Amino acid sequence: MTLATLLATIFETYPAFSERRIAISGPDIAVESRAATPVALVFHELATNAMKYGALSNPEGRISLDLSTEDEMVRFRWREHGAHIDKASEPQTGFGSRLIELAVKQQLGGNYERTWHDDGVELVMDVRKSRLQEPS
Q: Could you tell me the pTM of the whole model?
């Protein structure tokens, strides 16, 4: 399986994907079945939150997901555009945030940083390529 296939499978249930409001770019990286679950959990959580509160909660919103590799790391950059962020209320962290933390740090051996912009959230996640792929 590859990341493009996995991500398309996750996002195909969201109307925004068929409307081309979720764009994926970058190299197509092989991913083993053991790593597919934490990757799927992270991106399902992000897409669900985008539908409820973020860029996908309105028809103009969109998401870009850029993949890149450097040395032994794979970078995922999730960026929402067009969300209507309420500056008066601080973003809440809950079960979904803990799920992302567990998946990224413990299961995929990586780190992430979340940044709130005026028009949506950006999450940059770096994970070890060796956690995504079986050793050759």
A: 0.90
